[in-house]
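Let's sit down with a protein and look at its sequence and fold side by side. Once you have written the record down, we can walk along the chain together.
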Amino acid sequence: MLDPALPAPLAGWFASRGWQPRRHQLDMLREGRAGRHALLVATTGAGKTLAGFLPTLAELIERPSDGLHTLYVSPLKALAVDIQRNLVTPIDDMGLDIRVETRTGDTPSDRKARQRIKPPQILLTTPESLSLLLSYPDSATMFAGLKTIVVDEVHAFATGKRGDLLSLCMARLQRLAPACRRVALSATVADPDAYRAWLAPDGDIDQVALVHGEPGADPDIAILLPEGRVPWSGHSGRYAAEQVMAEIETHRTTIVFCNTRSLAELIFQDLWKANSMSLPIGVHHGSLALEARRKVEGAMASGRLRALVATASLDLGVDWGDVDCVIQMGAPKGSSRLLQRIGRANHRLDESSEAILVPGNRFEYLEARAALDAVEEGALDADPFRPGALDVLAQHVMACACAAPFRRDELLDEIRSATPYSALPDETFDRVLGFIRDGGYSLKAYDRFKRLTEEADGLWRVSHPRFVQQHRLNAGIIVEATMLTVRFKNGRSLGKVEEGFAATLTPGDTFFFAGLSCEVERIDTEDLIVRASSKPARIPTYGGARMPLSTNLADRVRRFLAEPDEWVRFPDDVREWLEMQGRRSALPRPGQLLVETFPREGRHYMVAYSFEGWNAHQSLGMLVTRRMEAQGLQPLGFVANDYAIATYGLEPVTDPAALFSPDILEHEFVDWVERSHLLKRAFREVAVIGGLVERQHPGKRKTGRQVTFSTDLIYDVLRKYEPTHLLLQAAWDDARARMTDVGRLADLLDRAADTMLHVDRDRVTPLAVPVLTLIGRERVATNSADDALLVEAEALAAEAMRLD
């Protein structure tokens, strides 16, 4: 067996800190010296990142070399910067001649150019930046000596489009550097073999060693209960601002996690109002300017902040040693995500991470309790793998062509060595090539779509140099809504808000952003010019799907409802709520679909408790109300949360089974998607990713309206003349799988007929109160919404909890 002993400088560095390398770190060193690919699954704080880099450091100590040795790929720019800080320190302490640099979208262009000519030994990057590097002709030289690829937080990549791109990039790197070794790291992998298959060249999991980390101390997690009763409505936990501030006061440094950017801005304002001690607190999310994010990250790293309100922008791997408490506002939506966030506290294997959950309502209390149980049992959320996306494949093929001409069969073999594309049919690959060659049958008359040419010698080449520049300006997998930059008159940028939100503003309006109240002075094409204000303000809204409730937690909440013996663990008011529901109506058994109907104030309500998540329920609401309209039930609307969907109309629903039959996905679903903007929005994304429509020209970026106009025009042409076009297929795949959670919908509808329990009552039931209060949110002005919703919730609750 290979000797895992550390080189003297590394051993001395560990000893100088009174540390011993952990067993899994030495195991990773052993696998590295054997040249084997490896997946490390270890809890947060176990030194995963150092374990991933140990073979690199050992080899560069024992056999110093210039040129790129190790490529570290991160899901977040902030994580890459954090790793650089924590990796450079030991390298400097040991006096090693090893350069470590980052390359992301934030890296200055002159440094990017220099890195291609004289790369560091260790380069920290993202999938998108790596793909761009591979589009240059000199990439073959740059990566020829590559020894290791380290994929951190692999669970954040593998199952999505960024994972598809990274897998294709690794396939290209393996061809350029055949001896290159792949390493992946994660704390939250439910199915290691699936990730080993994704990581392995050609999907052969036997090539990938599985290394398990040592178990750490159990986390210390509590659910914060309000000083009064657990709220009936809401999903943010805003009621607890003063209690959260009290926790911040008693800890060294606290991260307060929120599930959306809008909520992060709102919670920051609530905490600032409750901050009687004027403690330094900050806010961090992906829409803030780079300068603002770097400033707050630096302040956290140096211990100058007592609290930071953050979103998923800091979920993964960021190591700030002085953080001793994590607070989750609202329910976590998944046990894996909760574990990631908890791990930001203490970040040491032998010390418990302290976390506090702040549920927004009674259902969220059950979800929080379910999440705690799942964490205690080590039950993680499953990550569904699927075939690679075709728009991503088209982008990658164009990147390869930008680097050098290619032969069709050679490139296809390389692509099939990437697990998401291992079963790619010849015919589908030829359709991808045809799409890049001329745009497809309906678009081939236009020269601007003729990006590739097949020459007589069998080589595929880029048709014109302008297409190379076009690709590099527009490549990327993350297609965000078009943003406007929020600026002061002096030019200082605060960050970005979505164009749709900016369109609702006029001069004089105010909104909270980056922790400030900003008053709009004027709106330019790409900028929102503001000044600081003390006026009351609204919160920016951002599009995109909400975090779905995981099936793991949904199943656990269902079990809670069916097991009264568990209720002794719940607060009195939550237990009374469930007990009264059992007396007044019914509690659904696991797998059962409970549907309640009742009248109230001249309307007829139907509430279905399906627990399939907000995204799926939004789609289901659209479909069910369309079917209700066809049946003459005169629906007025619907509302949904993660646990239930409620429709309301002028006529009673007497046969809910007819509304939930599986054929709704064959008829109403297809018709609804094609008539709604859902498919157009999906097409817009795949058209941008696939390179059909550019977001950016040299020196100028298209506005969102310009991109939308271009894609909508092409969409209408393809729908009419070429409905089987590759990108329409890709858009349908996106619309079905990602935007509507159609898989969960299909499961729900398949079981509805056999498991539905219909209960008709004369008034609202206790279980219906949380979702019905959402109806009030639609008609209440922003400034008085909270007070009015509280009154509405209490009135509904009083009615629901009466025994007569």
User: Anything to note?
Assistant: The chain has a mean pLDDT of 86. The CA atoms of residues 707 and 713 lie 10 Å apart. DSSP finds 29 helices and 28 strands in the chain.
